[in-house]
Backbone:
């Protein structure tokens, strides 16, 4: 079935040591036979994701990007441990099979998890996935429901209450992302100082302290190929923590490019949120508020924060490309993307009642 998400040939410069992977896998899963076939998933611009196949048995290996990375970024061990703790209370988390902190294997920490075979919606619907407007709306609501479900997880019961740093999450995010942007700035990108000053001035208190994903998007959701309305998995738990749920929603909506958005924003679209039947950003906020029971008087701060945070992520990746630390040509235009996001943030600030 062509709808099922497929790995492709490994990108140049991101190859794995096949023999080392084989030794590790057979130690973790002694009944494996033969040699592994390794392919790479094309999506994502942060951690690297590979499919490791032994005949009909298929696994997924996650490792950090090659090249210099920030000391606190791409913590694969933390990601895997969070997933293991969440799995019993949030069944959409893939099962962790093995964790490796021995850098003699691949030169980095990494982990192996089960492969959830299913549909992952990227920029557009697969060609043979035909959904009516009503079907698309049903799918959209089911995906948003999984974010609401996550925010209702009992962190203490999952043993995750120590994952965050307590009250002050909003303030830590604004200060932290501002600091990260300044460290990653390149000469060809705007300084975001007005945006950062506005966020610093307008930040509210935390509305709650819950388990948040911090990168919840359609392309991190796995759908049942036999029933594409059913979510069978949620991927990419690298930035999961205990924090403010509206900040998490703001992060998600930074990627939510709708049908009537300007062409420059459309160029950044990575998921099919423009399709007829998809909720608008305003409708998502209203639906989330109704399902979660949270009172949302004004979402402007969270929307602008989400766009700024996305700009920082884009700029951190572009910094690596700009300084020759990665050769991935996908990142060549990320500086232009950061500049556009600064302008978009500023326009929203100018129009805000806050």
Residues:
């Amino acid at each position: 079935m062509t709808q099922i998400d497929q790995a492709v040939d490994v990108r140049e410069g991101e190859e794995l040591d096949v023999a080392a992977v084989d030794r590790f896998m057979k130690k973790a899963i002694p009944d494996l036979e033969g040699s592994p076939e390794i392919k790479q998933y094309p999506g994502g611009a942060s951690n690297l994701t590979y499919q490791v196949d032994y005949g009909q048995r298929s696994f997924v290996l996650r490792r950090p990007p090659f090249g210099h990375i920030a000391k606190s970024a791409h913590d694969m061990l933390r990601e895997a441990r969070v997933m293991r703790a969440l799995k019993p209370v949030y069944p959409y988390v893939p099962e962790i099979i093995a964790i490796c902190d021995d850098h003699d294997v691949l030169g980095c920490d990494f982990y192996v998890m089960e492969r959830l075979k299913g549909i992952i919606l990227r920029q557009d619907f697969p060609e043979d996935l035909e959904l009516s407007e009503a079907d698309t709306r049903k799918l959209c609501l089911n995906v948003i429901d999984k974010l609401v479900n996550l925010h209702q997880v009992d962190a203490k019961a999952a043993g995750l209450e120590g994952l965050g740093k307590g009250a002050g999450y909003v303030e830590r995010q604004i200060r932290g992302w501002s600091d990260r942007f300044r460290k990653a700035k390149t000469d060809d990108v705007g300084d975001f100082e007005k945006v950062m000053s506005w966020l610093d001035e307008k930040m509210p208190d935390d509305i709650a302290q819950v388990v948040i994903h911090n990168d919840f998007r359609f392309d991190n959701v796995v759908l049942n190929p036999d029933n594409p309305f059913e979510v069978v998995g949620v991927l990419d738990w690298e930035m999961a923590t205990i924090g403010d749920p509206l900040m998490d929603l703001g992060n998600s909506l930074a990627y939510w490019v709708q049908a009537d958005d300007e062409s420059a924003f459309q160029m950044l679209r990575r998921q099919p949120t423009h399709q007829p039947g998809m909720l608008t950003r305003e409708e998502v906020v209203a639906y989330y508020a109704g399902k979660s029971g949270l009172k949302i008087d004004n979402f402007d701060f969270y929307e602008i924060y989400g766009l700024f945070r996305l700009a920082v992520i884009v700029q951190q990746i572009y910094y690596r490309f700009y300084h020759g630390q990665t050769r991935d040509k996908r990142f060549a235009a990320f500086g232009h993307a950061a500049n556009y996001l600064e302008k978009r943030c500023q326009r929203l600030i100018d129009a805000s009642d806050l």
Notes: The chain has two domains: 18-114, 133-351. The mean pLDDT is 94. Residues 300-322 form the longest helix (23 residues). The chain has eleven helices and nine strands.
